[in-house]
Amino acid sequence: MDNHRGKMSGIYDCQHCGATFSKRSLLDEHKRILGHQNVFMCRVCDKGFYRKSNLESHERKHSSSEFNQCEKCKKVFSHPDLLSSHKQNFHNQSGGELIHVSLPSGGIGKRCKYVDLGKTLEEKRCFLQIQNNDELCYARAIITAKARLDGHEKWSSIRQGRSIQMNLAKELHHNADIPLRKCGIDDVKAFQRVLEGYQIHVVSKEHFNAIIYEGPEAEKKIYLYLHDCHYDVITKMPAFLGRNYFCTTCNKGYDHKERHTCNNTCHHCYKIHDVQKEQWKYSEDCDRYFRNNICFDLHKQKSNSGQSTCNTNFRCNQCGQSVYAKLHKTPHKCGEQYCRVCKDYFPENHQC
Questions:
Q1: Could you read off the pLDDT of 17-53 as tens digits, one per residue?
Q2: Number of domains composing the chain
Q3: In this structure, what are the phi and psi dihedrals at residue 241, rounded to the nearest 5 degrees?
Q4: Total-model pTM
């Protein structure tokens, strides 16, 4: 619960960062924007709720016969048609997960350099093209990607498509009990079954570069690119998506580590670090509290532009309002409030 320092003081504290507010609504807005809310997790499907009563209501659905539950992910639906649609969209027939990859959005011309697919495959270094005269491009692509991950002693010959590549592809067909023929997406499950320790992903051009198959979780990951009924190897997913990094958890590309939710960025210093024992430390410069010495030092660390969390995220010593550079488009003025519609801070009498 939030600490309320006296009924007459009208001051509300945030337990996560120590920020104070004169109104409960301002505290709620602060916690919503920065993720400083307590989340109650469902023990069955891991769905989160901000209210415990909503969690209790949700958990009753799992045990009620009136609701329809997915056997794989344990999500609950009120109608059988909704459950069927969920299975079709998120659990394909081959047993893998259907996960859509977010591609770079428009507005940055340099990332839209290639229009012709042939030129893209030829000039982009994140592809290994499979050159074959038979119908074994699927197995050849898997073998080539596997050899690259393993550091195969004859990697150069395999990459160039010499006879060893064909022999290993035929061996893979034999182990997977698949005849030497042209393979489709339905055959990937058989290949995946004999490749223990490897996780196959198939990215499809016809599905707007979405991942249409993802095998069971494994340390070594193989990415294949399906286009025009042919398979090539993707060596670097960040380069394929035009991003600096690629998250293997949510299968999305991103440019800034601290801004990606899967990296569990600290809500105090806005940096990534291991969660250690809490020894809260106060910073007089920004009037905020930090989890421990590591968290405190990271919030002081300056970027190449000379900015730090201490400079861009602070609490005003006049009005006590927390100031965040990403939300404030103009310099902070005491008495202003955040407008959800206009996405900026305005005086209390502001009308959209």
A1: 777 777 777 777 777 666 677 778 887 777 777 778 8
A2: 2
A3: -90, -5
A4: 0.60
